[in-house]
Amino acid sequence: MGMLRILLSLLLFANSVQAAPMASRLGSSAPGRLPALSSALTLTQDAAAAILSAPSLTSGILPTLSTPILPAPNAASPEIASIRAPLFAPRAAQNAKPVNKADDELPKVGPSALEAAEDLAEAITENSSAEPNALEIKMSHAFDGTQKPLHILMTAGEANPYVKTGGLADVVGDVAPGLAKKGHKVSLVLPLYASISPEQHGLTRIPGAFGVPVGNRIETARLWTKKENGADIFFVEHEEFYGRNGAYGYDGSDFRDNDERYIFHARASLEAMRFLDTPPDIVHAHDWHVGLIPAYLKLVYNTDPFFKATRSVLTIHNIAYQGMFPQHVVEKAGFSMDHFTFDQLEFYGHLSFLKAGIVFADAVTTVSPTYAKEIQTERFGHGLQGLLTHRAQDMVGILNGIDSNFYNPQIDPRIAFKYGPSTVREGKTANKRKFQSRFDMDRTAQAPIFGIASRLAHQKGIDLVTGIVDFIVGRGGMVVVTGSGESHLEEKIDALVHKHPRRVFRHGFDTVFVHTVYAISDFLLMPSRFEPCGLSQMMAHAYGGLPIATHTGGLADSIIDLYDSPDHGNGFFIDDFTTKALQTVISNAFDLYADEQKLEQVQRRAMAVDHSWKSSLTEYERLYHALLK
């Protein structure tokens, strides 16, 4: 009966759209919070008609603002953690209870596990010329630059410069305007979190409102907008869902209503396009927060003429975050229990928003080619490896990039002294001296600086780094850390700062100081246990820094090892996840640093690497057109 009521209410809602296209607009268009109104609507025609109006778009532009850095989400909620097991398992196996330990969200990667992962990554790299899959073949013939521009709806839980908990925000914040600059109509839809100030960001409210089904009720959604580098950015306002501190949770815990918050955001992203009367050619959903969108298009909107020609893409940024919720959420999300089967929405008795997206998306992408292969294995698949292997012909890894203007030491206003490839030695020396003077560190430009620009987490291998700091200091080096994270790792690093106060330094992460870290660091430590893509190694290259990293995920795709390729290398790989192995590579880094001529040659080589979005954006265009053929 609940589903019947929803369908009836939607019919009434659709009729009211046709009956009252010129309904009076609600409120003014001035920036600022709307007056308090009830978010939920009763399921009547009058109530539906009362919140409808025709949109009137305006936009405003402000200089880029610093992005609020919010706590990263947990890999799973405290109640329900992701389950690592084959997808197509016997029904008896699917009755297994989910684990509850947060650590179980991470792959169990010790030295032997890392060796296996490196073997896998190496095999993937060596076989990069292997036969392309069906999607890659289709992409190769789909786009030559002469096709008509597309309307791309992009949606996510975060994006720079508005809200950030991790690298997802950087990618979404770059890809949306990047595609717009190539001539496409891009609509990026984000939640209007409490941390996003309409006044500070120059947002304009779009008059009117529209309804979004959540469970057996209709919630009211209102839109704010601005133009950002050619892209139309839309923010969905809902005070009850988003008018609180934090994006996904607060004080280390996920919000208990994240199911409703992101059911609402997924459907609001689609309904916003109807409200604006702009059907998208492509809907590009990023991570679990909007993972339900491909399922909605195939199961709920499949007979809706508005979305008839729309195709969907799901990008997996980190498969550890899966959006796991209890079975009863299926109907709350608007799906029939007929689809709650192991080959569709069910994931070990629960609903996984990410799995729903993987099953129903027209194409699945990951953020690096190596990661696309890794997540098809039991070690890295987090229980979804069976499904991902099943969908391998529809999946492609597209390496992330960075904004090569924003991360450019020749024009970067955030560093003390600007420099280019021909002046990298002098530039790094000048920036080091400024940093050492400002923070009362040992004033020696001759000391190599090993930087860390990372979330301080087990996944990032920070526990391994803390065991090598004494060795670095003993060899005459310095360690500079910018980052926050797991308290026990923060405490370990702070203890090392206390032990070596003029040789070890930690600064909480912020979007300005991190540029200083890249400018002063000769080497960047990234011994990650797994890394879907990673951006820090690319940023280090841009500033002439050399990454010291594990051979996994996007690190394997974006770093060339100096040991294996002395004439082309631009970083170092460690061959085992042990302090001894890391110490060996750091010793090699000290040796390179002592050879000034060779060091400068490698630094210039690193700065010459093109990590911009140019080629990746073209790959996305190929993908979109392949799906529309």
The number of distinct β-strands equals 22
Structural class: alpha/beta
Percentage of residues assigned to helices: 25-40%
CATH-assigned fold name of the largest domain: Rossmann fold
Most strands sheet: 11 strands, mixed
Mean pLDDT: 85
Low-confidence stretches: 4-39, 41-72, 75-113, 124-129
The Rg value, from CA coordinates, equals 25 Å
What do you see in this structure?
With 629 residues, this protein is an alpha/beta fold. The chain contains 23 helices and 22 strands. The strands form 4 sheets. Strands 1, 2, 3, 4, 5, 6, 7, 10, 11, 15 and 16 form an 11-stranded mixed sheet that branches. The protein has a 6-stranded parallel sheet with strand order 19-18-17-20-21-22, with helices on both faces. The chain is globular, with a radius of gyration of 25 Å.
Task: List the SSEs and their pairings.
Blueprint: H1 2-19, E1 40-41, H2 45-50, H3 111-126, H4 134-140, E2 151-155, H5 167-181, E3 185-191, H6 198-201, E4 204-205, E5 210-214, E6 217-228, E7 231-237, H7 239-242, E8 249-250, E9 253-254, H8 258-276, E10 282-286, H9 292-299, E11 311-316, E12 324-325, H10 329-332, E13 346-347, E14 350-352, H11 353-360, E15 363-366, H12 369-374, H13 385-390, E16 395-397, H14 424-438, E17 449-453, H15 462-466, H16 469-474, E18 478-482, H17 487-499, E19 504-507, H18 513-520, E20 523-526, H19 536-542, E21 546-550, H20 553-558, E22 572-574, H21 579-594, H22 596-608, H23 614-628
Parallel strand pairs: 2-3, 2-10, 3-7, 10-11, 11-15, 15-16, 17-18, 17-20, 18-19, 20-21, 21-22
Antiparallel strand pairs: 1-6, 4-6, 5-6, 6-7, 8-9, 12-14, 13-14
